[in-house]
Specification:
127 residues; alpha+beta; Immunoglobulin-like; five-stranded mixed sheet; four-stranded mixed sheet; 11 strands; 39% strand
Length: 127
């Protein structure tokens, strides 16, 4: 009987621990980015490791804007280097905001930019 109770306790404890771990890792944070003509208003970002959704707002930047995220040191002109989940779901028109998919970022340095608004490449550091 003791073994049965202990077994049930261990199964329940494991289930709760796994559920708590899943809740911790499934927390998605939002990063708001705004573009004006030729630039992002956020010139640099520092984030902690985790999962993020990028919301990009077009404040009269260009007819349509987007977002490209790459690891630092990679060629941003090559689409193979882009972190595709960071792309917004559709091009962002004047006065609108669009979101990316959830992107899990690990420690390191990244660059973000918009080729349609011809912004510089800005630094995003994940600590």
């Amino acid at each position: 009987m003791k073994n049965l109770v202990l077994g049930i306790f261990l199964v329940a404890f494991t289930f709760v621990a796994q559920a708590q771990d899943k809740m911790k890792t499934s927390t998605v944070k939002t990063v708001a980015l705004e573009q004006t003509k030729g630039e992002f208003t956020q010139k640099a970002l520092t984030l902690s490791e985790g999962t993020y959704v990028f919301n990009v707002t077009n404040t009269n930047a260009a007819p349509e804007v987007g977002l490209v995220l790459i690891q630092d040191g990679k060629d941003g002109a090559n689409p193979k280097n882009h972190i595709a989940d960071a792309y917004v779901s559709q091009m962002v028109k004047h006065g609108k905001t669009e979101s990316s998919k959830a992107v899990t970022l690990t420690k390191g340095t990244y660059k973000y930019f918009c080729p349609f608004n011809k912004t510089p490449q800005y630094t995003l550091v994940v600590e």
